[in-house]
Amino acid sequence: MMTNTTIAALALLAFLSTTAGHAQDRSGPAANIADCVWDHVADSDKTMFLAHYTGRGGLRERMNRATAGLGPRDAALQAAYAECDATPGVPKPWRTALIGSRAIQYGAAHRLMETRRLSRDALDALWDDAPPATRECFMANAAKVFGPSPKSCSDPKASTWFADALSLSLQKAEDRDAIAELLIFMNAKAQEDWAVTLIGEYHRRNPA
């Protein structure tokens, strides 16, 4: 059983390796695990999540309702993960974060496609094109899901890059919902990157 100290040490190592380069190393056995797991999530669960995410209420209310809806489906979601990774002992919080972060991206991308005609591919490209300081800020914030973050955002203004790149402004009421969805998507993407990095580090330290 992994101790909190071990998990914290792994998190620190993963963070340092992530921010040292463009993004986390996706060359190991965990490289495509997020795509694989999401492909194995039942269509009915995806539909249920999307119905909650795009339903009534504000963004936070809808997102919280959608993620809460995943709770009763935990066994099925963990089974979807097991289809892609048979490595024993991968901490469940990492597995759950991987699935939850991909689900949130799914919901946010759907909304952005509906309202702004922004495809998932376009959003992924936007993340890849962002300056290192921008990704660093999102990675630092997303790290808090996994425990105390070993690094903070050095330039909070860097997080505005995504909205600026799409010519969106908080000064325009019609842009505010899109900016919120965009930031939610990018934060969830950073959380997924963390989960993939941590799982990859676990694989390297616990080879089959």
From TrEMBL:
This protein's UniProt keywords: Signal
Keyword field contains Signal: yes
Signal peptide annotation: 1-23
Protein name in UniProt: Lysozyme inhibitor LprI N-terminal domain-containing protein
Species this protein is from: Asticcacaulis aquaticus
